[in-house]
């Protein structure tokens, strides 16, 4: 597929009437992280004791906030305990296909990578489900590469219908859909959508997404709204840290979630700020985002939207994940494989990236308990 203007919709891409993208873009345009002072950060921390504004969130993401990380951590943990108690939810991803029609320069599933491609049959999905359910997990996140021809909405819906017999909560991390398609998957049993803008820097977005449907920036941006309009109860927002300026991308992701939640008061919003990881045989690309940077982003997100879930993934090393759980993170993955069919004896497709924490469900559960936290396998009952 040839390059096209990243603001241009392709045939079949649904357009909705929304002003959220201009709101985010206009505020982001004025965001200058280097202009904030320690006094601004102190005022922001005081403001977050009541109602944290986007302006306060900006200060907490600035370089001036780095000396305040311990204070931010105490405040963030207070909010985490206030809204979530000492509970941390467990889940695992389930990759059912890795075919992709996008050329994204940073992704292991990019159509230009010569990797082993695979797609699970319904029988193979059932075997994966049985193995995962035996660990006690009640929540999974279903993932595919972004390829409608190999991973159709109908195929994904059949997989969700099957998985509903094994799991109480099902998320999806797939290509963007139209409203009626999200509604179809919700009726099949999907509960929430994880979809990340990757970067909110439009010029960089155009550079990184060389070809394929993902190149359309606004269609991806408005996926969250279409998901809510299609009946999904939750959406996870985020950016892939390391592609661009992490402070600006985290600020934009926070604004994206903030304005969406205000427009859809019933919406359940969550955050995940994964850092870029190496793909098989290659070093990680992108800028260097440290663990301290990531911690700052997670703490600021907790203070900005204290009721939002925050996930810490296996892209991070065990020590960081252990520290983040209960401090600001409320969901943690366990027993993870990022290959297609990776939980069975024979993996059908290569993984998307190299994980940093391969601990089992039992090991993660025990770690949480040893840290005085409550491992939660089920926090939602569908009626």
Quick synopsis:
This protein is α/β, with parallel strands linked by helices and 383 residues long. The chain has 14 helices and 11 strands.
Please tell me about this protein's structure:
- By secondary structure, this protein is α/β, with parallel strands linked by helices.
- It has a single domain (87-376), classed as Alpha-Beta Barrel (TIM Barrel), CATH 3.20.20.
- Helix content is 38%, strand content 12%.
- It has helices at 20-29, 38-47, 54-61, 69-84, 122-133, 153-163, 179-188, 202-208, 217-221, 223-229, 246-263, 291-304, 318-324, 361-370; strands spanning 87-95, 103-104, 139-143, 169-173, 192-194, 209-211, 234-238, 268-272, 309-312, 331-333, 374-376.
- The strands form two sheets. The protein has an eight-stranded parallel barrel with strand order 1-3-4-5-7-8-9-10, surrounded by four helices. A two-stranded antiparallel sheet has the order 2-6.
- The model has no long low-confidence stretch (mean pLDDT 93).
Tell me the span between the first and last alpha carbons: 43 Å
Instruction: Report the helical percentage.
Output: 25-40%
> Would you identify the CATH H-level superfamily?
Aldolase class I
Strand content: 5-15%
Text of the CATH class: Alpha Beta
What spatial form do the alpha-carbon principal axes imply?
Answer: globular
Rg value: 20 Å
- Oligomeric form: single chain
């Amino acid at each position: 597929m040839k390059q096209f203007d990243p603001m241009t919709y392709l045939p079949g891409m649904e357009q909705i009437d929304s002003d959220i993208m201009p709101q985010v873009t206009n505020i982001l345009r004025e965001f200058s992280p280097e202009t904030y002072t320690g006094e601004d950060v102190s005022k922001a921390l005081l403001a977050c004791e009541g109602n944290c504004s986007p302006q306060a969130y900006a200060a907490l993401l600035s370089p001036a906030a780095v000396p305040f990380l311990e204070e931010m951590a105490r405040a963030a943990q207070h909010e985490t305990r206030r809204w979530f108690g000492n509970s941390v939810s467990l889940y695992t991803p389930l990759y059912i296909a890795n075919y992709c029609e996008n050329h994204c320069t940073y992704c292991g599933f990019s159509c230009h990578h010569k990797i082993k491609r695979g797609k699970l049959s319904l029988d193979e999905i059932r075997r994966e489900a049985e193995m995962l359910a035996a660990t006690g997990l009640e929540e999974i996140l279903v993932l595919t590469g972004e390829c409608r021809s190999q991973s159709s909405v109908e195929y994904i819906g059949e997989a969700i219908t099957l998985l509903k017999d094994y799991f109480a909560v099902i998320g999806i991390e797939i290509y963007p859909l139209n409203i009626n398609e999200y509604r179809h998957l919700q009726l099949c049993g999907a509960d929430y959508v994880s979809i990340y803008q990757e970067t909110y820097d439009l010029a960089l977005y155009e550079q990184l997404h060389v070809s394929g449907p993902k190149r359309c920036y606004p269609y991806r941006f408005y996926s969250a709204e279409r998901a809510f309009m299609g009946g999904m109860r939750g959406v996870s927002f985020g950016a892939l840290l390391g592609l661009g300026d992490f402070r600006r991308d985290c600020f934009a992701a926070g604004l994206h979630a903030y304005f969406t939640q205000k427009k859809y008061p019933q919406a359940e919003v969550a955050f995940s700020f994964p850092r870029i990881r190496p793909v098989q045989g290659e070093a990680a690309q992108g800028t260097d985002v440290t663990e301290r940077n990531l911690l700052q982003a997670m703490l600021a997100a907790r203070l900005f939207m204290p009721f939002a879930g925050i996930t810490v993934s296996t892209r991070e090393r065990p020590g960081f994940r252990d520290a983040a759980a209960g401090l600001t993170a409320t969901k943690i993955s366990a027993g993870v494989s990022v290959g297609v069919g990776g939980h069975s004896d024979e993996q059908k497709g290569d993984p998307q990236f190299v994980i940093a924490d391969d601990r089992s469900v039992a090991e993660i559960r025990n770690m949480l308990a040893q840290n005085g936290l409550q491992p939660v396998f089920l926090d939602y009952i569908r009626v």
